[in-house]
Amino acid sequence: MSGYHLTEEQINKFNSDGYLVLPSFFSKSQTDGLLNRAHKLLSDFSLEGHPMTKFSTGESVDHVGDDYFLDSGDKIRYFFEEGAFDDDTKDFRSGVSKETSINKIGHALHELDDVYREFTLRNQSIKNVAKELGAHKDPKVLQSMIICKQPKIGGKVPVHNDSTFLYTDPPSAVGFWFALEKCTPTNGCLYFKPGSHKTSKVHSRFVRLPGGGTGFETLPGMEQAKKQEEEIGWDPENFVCEECDAGTLVIIHGSVAHRSEHNYSDKSRFIYTFHMIESEVGLNPSNFQPIFVLGEKNWLQPTEAMPFIDVDVQAQRARKMEIRQEIHPALAAEERKIKEIPPSLRICHAQKFLIPLLLAFRLRVRVYCLSLSALLALSLVGSTTQAAYNPNYANKALVQRSIVTDPSQLDGKSFDFLIAGGGTAGLALAARLSEWSNVTVALIEAGGDGSNFKDRIDIPGYSYLNGLTGSDYDWKYKTVAQTDALGTVKSWPRGKGLGGSSSTNGLFWSRGSVEEYDSWNTLNPNGTEDWGWEAMTAYINKAENFTAPPKWQTDYYDIPYNVSDHGTVGPIKIGYCAYMYDSVKNWVPAWVNLGKKRLDAHSGANVGVSFSPSTLNTENSTRSDSQAGYIAPLPPRSNLVILTGFQVTAISWNSTVAGNAVSNGFKFKSTAGGNEGQEYTVTANKEVILSGGTVNTPQVLQLSGVGPSSVLSNLGINVVSDLPVGYGLQDHVSTAVKFNTKAGTLTWGNLINADEAASNLELYRAGNYTGSQWSYVNEATGYVSMADIDSDYTTYVATATAALDQNIKDITSWQNIPDNVAAGYRAQYEIQNSWLGKDIGQLEIILSMLNGMNGAGIQVGLQHPYSRGSIMINSTNPFDYPAIDPNYFGMGYDVDILNKGLEWARTLGATDPMSTFIADETLPGANVTGTDLNTFIYTSSGTEYHPLGTCAMLPQSSGGVVDTTLKVYGTSNVRVVDCSIMPMQISAHLMASAYGVAEKAADMIKAAHAYVPPASVTSSTSSFVSTSASKTTTQSASASTTVATAAQAAASGSESARVSGASRSEHVSWVFALGAGAGVISWLAIW
């Protein structure tokens, strides 16, 4: 993404000082354009009939008490300098003209003037800075103005902070102050007291008075602070003068003390400024249009004429409404009905009708291609998350959690949504679905909460040297004997506990290429949901909270990254390890010497060399897994129950009508007690959701009667839906070339020494993360295409293409797969064959700084295997593991490509400067080539821990198990939300994509039910919502609820009625969160 970007040092300086000066932020042509426009506005301004409203800053002056000031949000208003008028004649002073008399032009230039709107709302640099600053979750421009500071008469502005004058609770203002002319001490430049935003209190607020006009209100409990400030005053010696040139941007924290002096010079000091605040967008019940929602005390209020949202977006939105009405006339009729409904009930009714209709008639227009969360992603920052964005802003309520081990918390009870599996996707989904307190969510996880394995989860290096493989936090799966890998049995570790594999994996944060995600759409030509690159990367970004590496690290290790390719406000912390071995600096240069590109592999094209960021909280160098990101930091959440130590054994069915089976919940048992233990049940009011992963999800479905009829019937299981559950298994398979390292090379093997391990752990616990080897994880990566590893790749592509029919015939006969699954494989192979001739990663190459005491390795992972396997139950006992058969090397292409990849890895190791620390090859041995190398591959290779596809999101004619809304075919309320739905492999580790699937699924599920959430996310102060209350609340918002029912509930004063919209002024945040019903809010803040 182009434009200006903040550095880590700049962000730290802003947080430390409370302001940040960015010289040359905008160009001379931009400066001239804005300044010329300001003079044009002054020139066109007419004094005829104009009130002589003066403007000043300070508590002692009744300067803006008239309607002219209070209504300045829907017109361009002009305010005069106090020194512009003769005290006796009330006319302009001598030498003062109309053009030189104005102090300020405001207060909505970013909406009302084309030039300033373009600069404010279409400026990529401003977007970047606001996003990277991290002060808001959803920033909105509240006010904008030109301040002129006229020659000789430009008045002094006393010490103040901006949050006093912009009423938000809590304070959230950030000022963007653009110098249009040179600002000097003689013409009124800014003075700041650095750090005062941390020490001084906002004790008073400038407010709109109920009876008209404005005044200052001392905040409760702040009387003493105000008195002390008035008595002590501000020492001018503690203020720093910030002289600056035209083109400079000054970013101003809302609580930092600043001032400016009188303009004593003969030169003006024009600046343009606007303020961003944290607020919400709701629907105006009188016309059902979006409107900026502010506290009633804020002096500046939106109106129907100017709702403080981008007018260009309003025009686009109006056109899209026309398109929707052309597509479905019922929309127009429904809007006419809305106008006949009492205003207090419009929100409830609109949501009942419009959200399902939006989904039913979803347009392939950009705004509507995005489901609800992607609508939010059009905002400046992107999307709602549950972590603090910036510790200096307390503008985000904390969500709540409740983790229990007592089955009675679920047994016999009912919840709106039930989730099986608390892994990567499961916890993310639970957190999102329970964001509103009138919806209840229960999650069941077979493993523990991780408290017994805290260090082995948290400490980065432990994931490799002291990991959880083989522990109780691992399912400890094994494959069946792999026929085409010389009969070897492979270990298949999978995370078992809260966080799932996000708690046990190697921390890699990566995503596939544009074509790979787009292939998911290609395979679903009639899908109603978008699963291509744009949708998936938006949802991955929603989960991501990226921190760029420090400059010294970027320079020394040549780390290629681009902040704009990442999300920066999500709950999962992403960064680079604090400690890196010195030899890692050779990685990127060696690739470059082989003619490969440096790139950020998150850009949508990943062939080349990069450093993969990790799921790391860089502040304390700990793993950021799904529990740490979405659940663990948060206080108890009354409407979310997470039960650990219990395993879902089957889905319960209320109805098994063919093609429309309805689940009413789960059966579950104690993991420790096994199948002999007591059986418990829990009921779902709305949906049951499987998030057990590529192994556990198909197992539960098959045990519940959803799967291949041939498998189920043989086990005596009643068939509820005959689907190819368990087929389509695809896994990255990998091996490595290993080397000794040259004398003096420090590697991870150093930690095999107990004393070294202990001393490095001591450094880590002391917070010396850059000095401790326990902070290291493998991050040096790259991807190569077929052309990179085979000079005759065109022949290879032609051979694979010509053999397509035979390949399908072979795999069908070998594995006895259903015809529709074979048809799906054909479609996938056609895409894979095309990728062989494109710049798409076929192999992942990873530098591993571990090979015994003094060695290193280069791992090679096959990214697009042709082999397809399966996972099938072979027992009705849910505690018996299913048969896991990835069918490694069942198709000969896979070993061919891996063979070429190992040879390429050898070339890389021998290339300067990798050759400066790489010595002789230890495995498989430099002389092992050809078929001998294949033998090595068969015996040494194993899972790269990225299985997918066993509940594929495909049409039923192609072997699909779920549709593009993730609903299981043949059921009405069963969904799958995990990697098992992914229909084709991507050249990336799957964790980031798993989060993307969960985030998108959460939005789809919310929208499908169109319930009415309350005013805010649940917090420690939220009222408890019982299971029975949840039923009432959600029923009042369901599509079957009539307006009359809502009216009756409102009359009874029930909780459900209050939440449903009877008290609009208190319950508006849901409008933004749900995309405002039919999508009338496509963007609501600064673009």
UniProtKB/TrEMBL annotation:
A GO molecular-function descriptor: oxidoreductase activity, acting on CH-OH group of donors
Where the record annotates domain Glucose-methanol-choline oxidoreductase N-terminal, the positions are 693-707
The protein's matches in InterPro entries, at most eight in alphabetical order, are given as: FAD/NAD-bd_sf, Glucose_Oxidase_domain_2, GMC_OxRdtase, GMC_OxRdtase_N, GMC_OxRtase_C, Phytyl_CoA_dOase-like
What UniProt keywords apply to this chain's record, in alphabetical order?
FAD, Flavoprotein, Oxidoreductase
Query: What is any Pfam family matched here?
Result: GMC_oxred_C
Q: Which PROSITE patterns match?
A: GMC_OXRED_2
Known cofactor(s): FAD
Keyword presence, Flavoprotein: yes
Give the record's family classification: Belongs to the GMC oxidoreductase family.
Annotated protein name in UniProt: Gmc oxidoreductase
